[in-house]
Each structure stands twice: as C-alpha cells, then as structure tokens.
Amino acid sequence: MTRILVIDDDRAILNFMKVFLLQTGQFEVEILQDSTRAFEILSRDQHDILLLDMDMPEVSGMDVLRFLKNESIDIFTAVLTGVEDIDLAIAAMKLGISDYLLKPVDEEKLLSVLKAGSEFQVRAKRETRGEEAFSLAGLKYPEAFQDILTCDHEMLHIFHHVEKFAETDNSVLIWGESGSGKELIARAIHVISKRRDNNFIAVNAGAFADDLFTSEFFGHDRGSFTGAVQDKKGFLEEANGGTLFLDEIGELSLPIQVKLLRVLQEEEFYRLGSTRNVKMNVRIIAATNKNLFDEIHRGNFRKDLFFRLNINAIHLPALRERREDIQFLAEHFLKEYTEKYGKSIERISTPVMKLMRNYSFPGNVRELMNLINSAIVVESGKELRKTSLPCYFLEQSRSQPDSLVNGQRLLSLQEVEKEHIRKVLEHTSHNKTLSAKILGISRVSLISRVKKYELEK
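Request: output the structure for the sequence above.
Response:
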C-alpha cells in the first residue's frame, strides 16, 4: 500500500486526512502535527508521498522543502496552501514540488494527486531496480510523442509525466520558451486523453485584439455586429468535447482573462448577440513563454486564473539546456531537408557542429530547424560548411566562443553579483537587514544594489 505522511499544525485537517484516506483502503497514513520532528521522520525514508502544510510555526513548509532538496530525499510532495498564498506557492514550485492542493481540500482532487504520486513512486522503484528505463519503449503511448525528437533524459522524464496528466481531465499549463515544443506536448496530451476522437483546436491567444478575441472565442450570431452576416461558432464550440490549446496565455489582457475565468468556472458561455447559453465540455491546455509569477506580481495576470489553469504544470527545457539534442536534431533535419530538396549532402562539418553546440539557440528547436533548412538550400557540396550558414548565426557565433564553456555562457562580475543578491533576498524573504548581514555589506549598499539591479519585490 502507498505510505503517506501528512504534516500540518491543524489537528482538524490531520484528522480529516487520516479518516478519509484510511477509508479508501488504498493508503497507510501517518500524521504529524509537530513539524519540528519532520526532519527526523523524513530521514527514515519510510513514506511514498508527503502532504505538506506551508504555514506552520517553528519549522515551516519551506523549511521542510529545503531539507528534502539539500538531503536529496526523493519523495512525491504536494503542498497544502490557500489561494492567497501565492508567494509560498511560487517558492515551493521552485523547490520542485510535484503538485499543490488548495484549502479547503477537494476530495476528488486529493485522490487524483495521490494516484499520480503512487504511480510515480512505483515507476521510480522499477527504474532503481533496472526494470524500466526512461525511453519511448517504457511509455504506455509512445506513438503520441513520435513528432517530438529527443535523446535527452529530462525530456523523456517529462513524457512520463505528460502521460499521467493526459489521462485526467485537468487543465494543464505548459511553460517554455518559444520554439521549445509546447504545442507538440499539447497535441500529445490530446492524443492520449479520452478526448482524442474529438477536435484539437490550437489558438495563439496573443494574436487577437480584445474585441476580435471575444468574437472568435465565443462565436457570434448573425447581425450581432456590422459584418456578421451569418452565425459562427467560436473556438469553444469548435473544441466542444475535445481540447482547446491556448498558446501565449500570458499575452491576454486583463478583461479577457476575466471572461476566460468566468467560462472555466461556470462551464457555459454566450455567443455575441445571443441570449442562449451554450454548455461547455472542453479541456483547456494553456502555454506561456512568460514568467507568470512575475506577471502576477506586476498585476498583469490574475492569480485566480493562474490557479485554475495550473492544476498540472509541465516545464519544457530550452534547447541550450539539453545540449545532446543539438547534434541529434541537426542530423535529423539534415536528412529531412536533403531529401526534400533533392540534395546529396552527407554530413555536417566538424566546425559547423562545434558552432552549433556552443550557440545558445534563443529560438530553440524551431531556430535549429530553420538554420539547417536555410544552409541546405545554399550548400552545393557533400558537407554542410560554414560558408552556407546564415550571416546572423555566424556573427552571433563569433561573439560567443570566448564567453562559453561547454556550451554554457560565462557570466560577468555584475551578473554574478546580481544573481547572488537575488538568491540571498529570496532566502530571507527580502529582509534587507538580514540579507546585508549575509552578504557582508551595509544595508545602504544593499539598497543601492537592489535599485541598480532592479531587484525590488
């Protein structure tokens, strides 16, 4: 049976958790009200899942998460938090929690999280014993990922999580830079899900002005505005029974965010010009290349919408963070485009491959694909040479080698100082007096640097 440890200073919550979970007959449950004993108990490594309250005296939830990270204790962790605890939720995510539950805890959501945790631990134990490797062969639905080319271990790890999320009907928020494959992951989720036989509608949310987005999203009736000569279904109706993928969700204006949140909460909407409500049965997958935590603090993104969309989260690494994939993908694109253009280019030269390995690829996989495509059109020999590469790539590459080590950019002294101060401020929850003491500088000097580096919370 799955072994669960619940740590919370609220006896009522502990009692509820223990009774509810034991009644399912699926779990062994241990509860802990005195969080000062958490380190001792967790060190024994006797539990599969940790349900952790964030707001506790003496030893807080953040203290426990830091302990788990520092001691490399691998336990599926879900935190318990209130909707208003946005800063704690953000900090907890950075420390690698697997999920979070909003208080008061929804029983169905709780069981869903625990199921995911149980399956995660079973898979981890099999891998430890060598019974199952992280490869496409170890996936239940390898065909769903056939368009995502990778040999990176972290990406394969993400695929296993995607499978688990796909089997639920939860909203999913995919984080990643432009060109990192967010839509491909969204399509994989749809293909695996029970909605696979219905529509997958992909929409770039940032491409529409407010008025146009409302019409396109909800649809309109004939005569509702000038030019509306016939009824038109919106994205929601087109995706009914299926999946609606909203890319660049961070670009939505606040008024549109309000409308989207209302639809998600009420599961119905009205076409423009209509008084008839339309019931919605749509799974929402959203994606962003923005840091929504920063956007929430700036007042540009609603935190209630964030919590509604971010039930399950997937973070896609940038191409520069999975260097092994650069050569793997470059050789794949070489083969694909030589066949497409009828060329006989057999390989990529060593100097070109070295340049690509050391390049940061701000456009990620999409940029690498376009780079190879462009070079193949120009190349006339048997080998892809530097002379065939786009000028922008060669110019940027010339400025990078001296500042790269193993493909990683070296930081300037100012960048190192800024990053270190930022980490200390986060560690002290922006207590400037304590931060200055840790840094060994005066409080006045710290305030000056905070303003210089724009590190104000």
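Confidence is low (pLDDT under 50) at residues 126-134, 401-407.
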